[in-house]
């Protein structure tokens, strides 16, 4: 790409700092090295969804929205840019060919997993929670103290849950009478 | 040293030779002055107190330099620029003559420059403002570099996470992503001091919206041109993780002139005060 003399003269007026742009006719008409402004990359900061450490990540995406790079966020006070192997491979969450795109179900006694629809899976989970709760709900304990609990269900949260999700999950678990309310960080 | 480093780099990049040769002459002239400088002693307690309040270490009115050495370099910078940019020779001659008859003209200009107000002097004297700032920058560079090395031990880089230079309050005009984890280090456009700053926000306006602060990588992945669509400024960055040896950033600033041209051709680089919350330190900063 050629840089015209007129263009160079125009750029000269924008000199700043310690740099000034060439104006000599020879330079202005000579093909110089050009830095192509193609493929802009976007960088967004986020938190690793795996363990409970909450390491900061920078996810870079190309013009097509696909992830082109992931790395530790050097400005995050938790990890200062350092990552463990799982976090380093975090982009596989989006790009791995092995990524699950539908729920898998293994029926009682079956040896194989089968793909099912989300609507079926969610309904099935709800039905089983209801059945288990109904079968195991205790209004009082052996001493007659009101407890309103179920010992047949447990709830496990994950590091990827945000505060709002955790609030809703806790509300749901307490409403069901769950006392085994745990988080991945403590196991 | 910087001139030698630039010479070595040009040897491997002949296509850049014509573009960067003038800067070799500037660096050589600055090196002669810098080697003879002895920075004046600073009161460490006072400097630390300034830094604790977010005020750069060097108070503009505390700048000291031999007026004759300043004037000699001022004239040499004008002469070198005229030689390499003949179209600008008449404007440079007016700038060269500007200090004539002014008592401490350049020392007072330095105070204006450090306050980010040198443009006022140029306007008053009807000089080309950007050219005036360019000559001032290249004249003051060796003096401010000396201040930077003298004051560096007093700067706590862990706590200075501001977008302006902790030594002189200048704006960055280059940066590096450092080993091992890619933390960003900004390079001061005035004194070449380097300090860390957040990587994902614009140091000129604080914009951290990923949709408005993007970068364009070089084909070899070594350089990045960060573009802010909010304030329309840009920052050239080198990724040191891609290199075995760390090159001097002031030399890289010059070698990346094609990045400046590319950004300016797209309309980036024009100062837009509407969004200027970062960049250079200003006295009225909240």
Q: Give the helix/strand class of chain B.
A: alpha+beta
> Percent of residues of chain A in beta strands?
15-25%
From the alpha-carbon coordinates, what is the Rg of chain A to the nearest angstrom? Answer: 29 Å
- Strands of the widest sheet of chain A, in order across it, are 1-2-3
Please give the most extensive interface between any two protein chains, plus how many residues each contributes: A-B, 43 and 62 residues
Mean pLDDT of chain B: 90
Count of helices of chain A? 6
Which range best describes the helical content of chain A: under 10%, 10-25%, 25-40%, 40-55%, 55-70% or over 70%? 25-40%
State the shape of chain B: globular
Q: Strand sequence of the main sheet of chain B, in spatial order?
A: 3-2-1-6-5-4
- Count of individual beta strands of chain B: 6
Low-confidence stretches of chain B: none
Q: Which shape of chain A, going by the Cα principal axes?
A: elongated
Characterize the main sheet of chain A.
3 strands, antiparallel
Assembly type of the chains comes to heterodimer
